[in-house]
Amino acid sequence: MAKMIDRPSGLGAPAGPDFAEQERAWEAASAKGKTRSGPGSGATDRTLSDVPLKTIYSPEDVAHIDLARDVAWPGQYPYTRGIHPNGYRDRLWTMRQFAGFGSAKQTNERYHFLLAQGQHGLSVAFDMPTLMGYDSDAPHARGEVGKCGVAIDSLADMETLFDGIDMGDITTSMTINGPAAIAVAQYIAAAEKKGIPRAKLGGTIQADILKEYIAQKEWIFPPRPHMRIIVDMIQFCTAEMPKWNTISVSGYHIREAGSTAAQELAFTLADGFAYVEACMAVGMDVDSFAPRLSYFFNSHIDFFEEIAKFRAARRIYARHMREKYGAKDPKSWQLRFHTQTAGCSATAQQPENNIVRVAYEAMAAVLGGTQSLHTNSMDEVLALPTEKSVEIALRTQQVLAYETNVTNVVDPLGGSYFVEALTDEMERQAEAYFAQIEEFGGVIEAIESGFFQKEIAEASYRYQRSFEAKERVVVGVNAFIHDDEQVDMDLLRITEEMERAQARSVQDVRASRDNAAVTETLERLQVACRDPKDNLMPHLIDCVNAYCTEGEIVEAMVKVYGRYTERSVF
Amino acid sequence: MARPLRIVIAKAGLDGHDRGAKVIARALRDAGMEVIYTGLFQAPEQIVQTAIQEDADGIGLSILSGAHMTLFPLVVEQLKEQEAADIVFFGGGTIPPDDAKRLKELGVREIFTPGAPLQDIVDFVERECGRRRELVG
Amino acid sequence: MGNLYSTDELVGEFFAGKPRALARAISWAESGRGAELFHRLYGHIGRAMTIGLTGPPGVGKSTLSSALVRKARLLGKSVGVVSVDPTSPFSHGALLGDRIRLTEHFTDRDVFIRSMASRGHLGGVAGATIDAALLMDAFGLDVVLIETVGVGQSEIEVAELAQTVLVALQPGSGDSIQVLKAGIMEIADVFVINKADHPMANQLRREIRSMMEMLNFPGWVPELVTTQALTGDGIEELWAAIERHAAYLHASGTYREKRRQTFLHQVHQLALGGLERRLERSLRDIGDAGTDPYAAADRVLETFGVGKE
């Protein structure tokens, strides 16, 4: 995208004959150097994602960059340097630790703890049955209730989850996809029961189903019906909830599934653009909903690659939104994103090392300009985090924010020959992927042919092989190992009793509600599912208010839309 | 002509993280084995029925959702019920050391945690399933 | 070499309807121990309806299989599926993932699914596959579905060994025309155009019809069915076409002829395999001092008791 230009206002303005002489001298010295040996020395010439790296970057590497067009200033198109003019000086990123386990009551206690420790916003982790649309007493839920998140079977649980918390005052991010529209309905209903109008509610719903087919596999319905559900949700929330982020288009999971940084970047933005197109296809004006779209990236351990990825993401997004989709409101061009440090970089061996990894990854996210951040706890490879380890994770962000001073200057790495060159390269690779996706006819067609899944499986396998060959080092795992590895930690355990209690609790809800209302609201929901012109959200809110359980609502919708099954792609 | 070892690689419960399972499947294939991948969201009964029909030498189960203490024992139980306990049952996932120990006591032959080298897993399968093949034919 | 069962035990369990016994029997056949079993089981073969399904990758064969299995089950029939996947030529291992689309049938006791790699089987992949199909027949399964990937020579061979051959094609892909040119026209009993909702489905219908015009069909004229396997559209019609073909086979006596051909094919493959092994041994023992290849070959043939032609 960036072309050769002749003007001296480029980054790499020629700097005189002495400089050229120095460069030649360095090249001569470099040619005589010897590559080091030992672990990891097989991969010094490339990033974690196999992007080739020079030994050093110089003005020549950025000579082609047009400062005004490609880099500009923070708060200005194309936002390479950030979306806010003063960056973190005006406002720090939101410290938002993902949490949830066991029952709504247990999670509610953890939320109070985190808020007391200085966390800015809440982030809900749901358990697998809830994520997949099953009630806690369903056969599919056996052994899974409360294990990797909180069990929310009905409105009753959502009300308990926010007990004693002013829903009008904090923002909440909910990480759920297949049944996302139901979760939003439950959130609205719970708030309204506490007297808070929906227009006051701030937060984010993940809801990004495309990446489920690609990477995380928490799907329910097939792609095309599900796109309708998402468009309905975006339309509804755009009209009724001005402070609500209608979707969090995610690359985190794509990366966790084994993709490269460029794939994470390209596939995420491609998904985002697919949602934009779907909304525009039903007649929505792009500027009406685009400002409330949000994104979610991974921050992995290759420090500079991640920073370049974040900067490239902003620039690519701005360009496409303005030039391709014709958005006119600058807010529609601004990429706002949440970041989570890479779960897949954490190790079960010597778990304390994870604290260090997370610190570096958090710093990359901040130097990349993230709007909000979750830092992983050291023990998450083994189990859900304990209070102690989640506190350390939060403190990691606080030390970063309040002690290191990296927040005092906006985009401090802007202008670095290396970072600008790498940002460019990331953009170029992403555009190449967009072209490939176009050839399939779009994201859904590419999903159906297994394109993304194949790319990810290949990248994941390549990484594993280079790890096994010790080209890539993971400290404590394939280098610097303890001979008799003893992990001595207190781990959080969810008991069988919790599952039984939750099963009883959902049965109680079913027994004590107006079952005629349940039948009626579910029927009306099904009728709406068949009518493309009838927005599903109000019907979902009605179902939720009648205390239909999540499983019942999902079943009703599956009868209309069917269930998705994947094909095997290696 | 020796038949290659046949291994079923399975994902049970609601966990959709198949990266590890697929990488292991490929590694076993590269080591010359026939790998039958069950796909996601398998119930223990489905996994065992698959292993029986495919005359598998081993079953590798991957669970990253925390439901391992329920699902692994259910597979062990099913194998016993179907008179197929000779099949080498191993697995991996987000499994703390105490749980791994308990699962092995219950009949799971080995548990591999994240970071276990692929070659260790391949070697284990060749050795244990090879031994089973010799006993059983 | 140990045994889970002795031959007698295996045959006993087999006739008692134990799935494990069928699975072991198939493994035995794959390991060259088919002889021991077939002596005892061959008389029980001949009840099942065997269907071969082939077509280029990506056409949706597994989804079609799943739909056909569902239909057969609705009719109260038990089903066996043999799913053939390619073996890696490098490692000789294989990733067999076609079962995935049949997940809904995994706990159905009346559906038996076996994945098979196309590796160097004794008697070729067709041999091993047909053994598996015959064993399923002997076991008592009503319908046996053989699914192969791609349209190479061996896939055609496999498909032909079934009584009714379905060739699946998809609109809008150049594959389909290639397939039609590769000799598939001659073996198809039913053409299945999957993804019937595709804009180019009608064009493909016309292309197939016009290619059929150029050929002569003295007996059965292949039928053409369009399906959308994901929603189940067209599966009724497909099944009806299969039944019509089965009826034709019986009425015209072609059924017996096909069975004989299958039998001869197997005998041919097994005998050839056996001969090849003997030949390898003889070749190892040949010295090469002073003989020309023609004379050496004659000498080898003599050891087999084969005189000059």
What's the SSE blueprint?
The complex is a heterotrimer of chains A (570), B (137) and C (309).
Chain A: H1 17-31, H2 67-71, E1 94-95, E2 98-99, H3 104-116, E3 122-125, H4 128-132, H5 155-161, E4 171-175, H6 180-193, E5 202-205, H7 210-216, H8 223-240, E6 244-245, E7 247-250, H9 252-256, H10 261-281, H11 286-289, E8 293-299, H12 303-324, H13 330-333, E9 337-341, H14 353-367, E10 372-374, H15 387-402, H16 417-440, H17 443-448, H18 451-468, H19 496-511, H20 515-530, H21 536-545, H22 550-561
Parallel strand pairs in A: 1-10, 2-3, 3-4, 4-5, 5-6, 7-8, 8-9, 9-10
Helix pairs in contact in A: 3-5, 5-6, 6-21, 10-12, 10-16, 12-14, 12-16, 14-15, 20-21, 20-22
Chain B: E1 6-11, H1 19-30, E2 34-37, H2 44-53, E3 58-63, H3 68-81, E4 88-93, H4 97-106, E5 110-112, H5 118-136
Helix pairs in contact in B: 2-3
Chain C: H1 7-15, H2 19-30, H3 34-41, E1 49-54, H4 61-74, E2 79-85, E3 94-96, E4 111-117, H5 124-139, E5 143-148, H6 153-160, E6 164-169, H7 175-184, E7 190-193, H8 201-213, E8 223-226, H9 235-252, H10 254-285, H11 293-303
Parallel strand pairs in C: 1-5, 1-6, 2-4, 2-5, 6-7, 7-8
Helix pairs in contact in C: 1-2, 2-5, 5-6
How large is the share of residues in beta strands of chain B?
15-25%
Question: Roughly what fraction of the amino acids of chain C lie in strands?
Answer: 5-15%
**Which class do the helix and strand fractions of chain B yield?**
alpha/beta
What is the string of SSEs of chain C from the N terminus onward? Answer: HHHEHEEEHEHEHEHEHHH
Roughly what percent helix of chain C?
Answer: 40-55%
Sum up the overall morphology of chain B in one term: globular
- Give start-end ranges of low-pLDDT stretches of chain B: none
Question: What sequence of helices (H) and strands (E) makes up the elements of chain B?
Answer: EHEHEHEHEH
Number of strands of chain C: 8
